[in-house]
Amino acid sequence: MGIPMYGSRCSNRPFFPALPELLARFEYARISIPMAILIWVMIYPMMLKVDFRSIRNVGKNPKGLFVTWIVNWLIKPFTMYGIASLFFFVLFITSFPF
In total, how many domains does the chain have? Predict the structure, then answer.
């Protein structure tokens, strides 16, 4: 996949010039239907692996749930902001017109 993308980028012309316009027509309420389908295809196999019977027992040992909440809501947002700031404002400052 990288080689066609690189080739398209280097030649400064897309392989299928009409493809973005074609896909833009399949939109409902400003949501791209092809993208929604592709995301669903990506998520569905992971959903099949969830043991829904074990969800009832999550309250018996909530330690893992608390660790997940703390990491996802208190740690990750700040580290992602730090990483984004590093890339946008330090490493690639000349690439963005701020």
Answer: 2
